[in-house]
UniProtKB/TrEMBL annotation:
Record keyword tRNA-binding present: no
Segments forming domain Glycoside hydrolase family: 40-301
Name the UniProt record assigns to this protein: Cellulase family glycosylhydrolase
Organism name: Flavivirga spongiicola
Pfam family, one: Cellulase
Signal peptide: none
Similarity field: Belongs to the glycosyl hydrolase 5 (cellulase A) family.
Keyword hit for Hydrolase: yes
Keyword annotations of the record: Glycosidase, Hydrolase
């Protein structure tokens, strides 16, 4: 496919401020820092447990060609952080001795498939949050290892990490999640704080005893914001975070929580208000605060439409799919949440998720119950008999731009609060480069007059736009700028027209 070009008459444009039209005046302030050095945006990426080996439910469908296509797309995105959640029985836990001692094997096809993910992260200096979904007994694996504080599981995890970090020399593994969403009824802990805490303490001690502490450390609580489990001694996912800062502040070196807001909360701007106090709580210890998972779950009419679309798709697990990943507007919503996250000081944002082919509902490998959340389905031909399902979906466009042009180490500076519904801006600085991201989720075209306080240096920018009618791509379906080599003094106000329901990014980075 040829690169798409458009007349300048349909593009947002930069001109000197010299007219009497009413524009919204907005400034960013480099001397007021929100985050000194972010981790950045990334994705959840699993090693295809249903298609990673000869013994997998679907067979060994992840061929070198398939892997390379995924790698090429990630090369464009340049993710800064990856969350890789796994399961012992998917990789290295192969049974138990008569007395119940686990049998582990790090020379399996499944472990070698995981190496492909970790090799990519290592070679590209990507921070990895690693972990296991839960105790192996939750999946009916023999051995009766059901608890997070079972010494056998802690010993297995330690040996696995020792293999990956010491033997394989993966330095990308920075943080470990012990049990995904431990506050949930679906978790192996089922909301049992005390069990989870004991497991975290046991794992920490084991890592220290084996010379791994400092090479990898524990992130938590990894709970779900807003979710309440009546079995839990603490009210909700936020309460688990506060208890973690109170009870485990000498253990946890990264605080994380999961976020699945409604479209209404994001579009109204209330999303940022949910996380501002949580960031403040975590910041007092000087450790990163991340969203370990981010995705939107719609309510009302959109929620009903999503259910109907999932039911109509013979391959979607309708109980856990977001069918709007095929629609343009999801890219606006999810990047709106990302921009709000950066503006309240969240250091890393991991979106759920990369690829439909990674997971099924309950992870039983049922082809008719894919978790439709991905940027594509790399096995669309093999699983769904639909090659088009392997294509890049719209929301890859803005998310990849934010990941690519707000890289790790970027300083997020304060931007004036915008008193216009649906309009938000975030500005990042790194190595004498600037990125400016703007969301307009309203149905009204907006005009702003924007300036960055600071030096009079003249810089050259390129400009991207993501809208329903205009989002140019190259032959790989990767975003291309609508304008390049836009030169201007950053301290002289510039007029920017931002169309309704659009995302605009201007950056001086030149990858």
């Amino acid at each position: 496919m040829k690169k798409i070009t458009f007349s300048l008459s349909v593009l947002i444009f930069f001109v000197n401020s010299c007219t009497s039209e009413k524009y919204i005046s907005i400034a960013s302030h480099p001397n007021t820092v929100i985050s000194e050095s972010i981790i950045g945006a990334g994705v959840q990426w699993s090693a295809y447990p249903h298609a990673d080996s000869d013994n997998a439910e679907w067979g060994h469908l992840m061929t070198p060609k398939k892997w390379n296509k995924v790698f090429e797309r990630l090369d464009y995105m340049k993710p800064n952080i990856i969350r890789v959640m796994d399961q012992a029985s998917w990789r290295y836990f192969v049974g138990v001795e008569e007395e119940g001692t686990p049998i582990i094997d790090f020379n399996t096809q499944e472990v070698k498939s995981l190496y492909k993910v970790l090799d990519y992260c290592e070679n590209n200096n990507i921070t990895v949050v690693f972990g296991e979904w839960g105790a192996p007994g939750l999946w009916g694996v023999e051995g009766e290892i059901h608890k997070a504080d079972d010494p056998r599981w802690i010993n297995m995890i330690t040996k696995y990490l020792k293999h990956l970090i010491i033997d394989k020399k993966y330095t990308c593994l920075k943080y470990y999640n012990l049990v995904n969403e431990p506050d949930g009824y679906w978790a192996s802990t089922d909301g049992d704080w005390d069990q989870w805490k004991r497991g975290v303490l046991m794992l920490t001690e084991s890592l220290k005893e084996n010379g791994l502490w400092g090479k990898i450390q524990v992130a938590g609580p990894d709970t779900v914001q807003g979710y309440e489990n009546p079995k839990s001694k603490y009210l909700n996912g936020e309460a688990w975070l506060y208890e973690s800062t109170e009870q485990l502040n000498d253990i946890l070196t990264c605080y994380d929580i999961h976020s699945y807001p409604s479209g209404k909360i994001v579009r109204s701007g209330e999303f940022s208000n949910l996380y501002r106090p949580l960031v403040k709580e975590a910041d007092q210890f000087g450790f990163p605060f991340i969203l370990g998972e981010l995705g939107l779950k719609y309510k009302g009419d959109l929620g009903e439409k999503n259910k109907a679309l999932g039911k109509a798709d013979p391959y979607a697990g309708e109980d856990d799919s977001n069918m709007f990943v095929y629609d343009f507007f999801y890219g606006i919503d999810v990047v709106d949440a990302l921009i709000q996250s950066l503006n309240v000081g969240i250091d890393g944002i991991i979106v759920w998720d990369l690829d439909d082919a990674m997971h099924t509902v309950g992870d039983k490998g049922e082809k008719t119950k894919l978790k439709r959340w991905g940027m594509w389905n790399i096995l669309g031909t093999e699983i769904c008999n639909n090659p088009d399902d392997e294509n890049i979906r719209p929301w890859f466009y803005p998310w990849s731009l934010m990941s690519r042009y707000f890289p790790e180490g970027t300083k997020i500076i304060k931007t004036d609060e915008v008193k216009v519904e649906g309009l938000r801006i975030v500005t990042g600085l790194k190595d004498d480069h600037i990125s400016i991201a703007i969301i307009n989720n309203s149905t009204t075209n907006q005009k702003i007059e924007y300036v960055i306080e600071g030096s009079e240096k003249r810089m050259k920018f390129k400009k991207y736009i993501y809208s329903d009618m205009l989002r140019p791509v190259d032959e790989n379906d990767f975003p291309v700028p609508v304008e390049e080599d836009i030169g201007f003094f950053i301290t002289i106000p510039k007029k920017i027209e931002v169309p309704a329901n659009s995302f605009v990014l201007l950056t001086s980075f030149n990858h």
